């Protein structure tokens, strides 16, 4: 049964955030809010957690997770950025964008694209997500919470608790977070290519 944390959407209670992070450090899988929609998250080193997220969403081994960061310094440790990418991505973050970039050696091989050695990274513009990330002190391995067979994601934490109570360790509810995924920009060729239009304005790329 998942623990349920009802947190303030813009000023999350530090005690609740600390409890969520303690669970993550103990290899929990959580549902948490972002600036585009709710997501599933676990620590990067939690192999079992990654497998659990795949099982929850009925994904295969080819699914690429996103590494969700608290700031640009953390993001820069995970991916290689040339000057143009640096400027454009820095101006768009935090925000509802996922950027696919060449991975640094900091990224475990199992999480990078097998051929391209690339990985998706993002910095959410969400007070609750950022509070969790700052308290944790490392990126979260994450995947959008869109369930198989559903046309739309669940937009409220209580819905997630009701539906996924048996397969999650914690649900962090911060109210409605919408139903649009991030806009995905692939930068692996050296120039931006918008591969999915979502909550972020794609025209800036």
Fraction of residues in helix: 25-40%
Beta-strand portion reads: 15-25%
Outline the biggest β-sheet.
Answer: 10 strands, mixed
Q: Output the number of helix runs.
A: 6
Strand order of the biggest β-sheet? 1-8-2-3-7-4-6-5-9-10
Write down the overall mean pLDDT.
94
- Rg, nearest Å: 16 Å
Number of strands: 10
Structural class call reads alpha/beta
Instruction: Give start-end ranges of low-pLDDT stretches.
Output: none
Distance between the termini: 43 Å
What string gives the helices and strands in order?
EHEEHEHHEEHEHEEE
Shape descriptor reads: globular
Short description:
By secondary structure, the protein is α/β, with parallel strands linked by helices.
Descriptive report:
The protein has 205 residues and is of the alpha/beta class. The protein has six helices and ten strands, in the order βαββαβααββαβαβββ. Strands 1-8-2-3-7-4-6-5-9-10 form a ten-stranded mixed sheet, with helices on both faces. A hairpin with a 6-residue loop joins strand 9 and strand 10 (193-196). The protein starts with a strand and ends in a 9-residue tail after the last strand. InterPro entries: DHBP_synth_RibB-like_a/b_dom, Sua5-like_dom, SUA5_domain. Pfam families: Sua5_yciO_yrdC. This is Threonylcarbamoyl-AMP synthase.
Helices and strands, with pairings:
Elements: E1 3-6, H1 14-25, E2 30-32, E3 39-43, H2 47-57, E4 66-68, H3 72-76, H4 83-92, E5 97-102, E6 118-122, H5 127-136, E7 140-144, H6 157-164, E8 170-173, E9 183-186, E10 193-196
Parallel strand pairs: 1-8, 2-8, 4-6, 5-9
Antiparallel strand pairs: 2-3, 3-7, 4-7, 5-6, 9-10
Organism: Cellulomonas avistercoris
Domain YrdC-like: 14-200
InterPro entries: DHBP_synth_RibB-like_a/b_dom, Sua5-like_dom, SUA5_domain
């Amino acid at each position: 049964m998942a623990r349920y944390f009802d947190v303030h959407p813009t000023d999350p209670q530090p005690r609740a955030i600390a409890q969520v992070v303690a669970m993550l450090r103990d290899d929990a899988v959580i549902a948490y809010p972002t600036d585009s929609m709710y997501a599933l998250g676990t620590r990067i080193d939690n192999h079992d957690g990654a497998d659990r997220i795949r099982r929850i969403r009925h994904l295969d081994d080819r699914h690429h997770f996103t590494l969700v960061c608290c700031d640009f310094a953390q993001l820069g440790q995970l991916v290689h950025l040339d000057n143009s990418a640096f400027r454009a991505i820095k101006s768009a973050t935090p925000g509802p964008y996922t950027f696919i970039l060449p991975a640094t050696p900091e990224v475990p091989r199992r999480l990078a694209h097998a051929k391209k050695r690339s990985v998706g990274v993002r910095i959410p513009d969400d007070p609750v997500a950022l509070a969790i990330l700052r308290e944790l002190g490392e990126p979260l391995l994450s995947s959008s919470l869109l369930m198989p067979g559903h046309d739309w994601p669940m937009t409220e934490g209580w819905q997630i608790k009701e539906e996924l109570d048996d397969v999650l360790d914690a649900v962090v509810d911060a109210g409605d977070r919408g139903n649009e995924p991030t806009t995905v920009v692939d930068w692996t060729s050296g120039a931006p290519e918008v591969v999915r239009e979502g909550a972020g304005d794609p025209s800036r790329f």
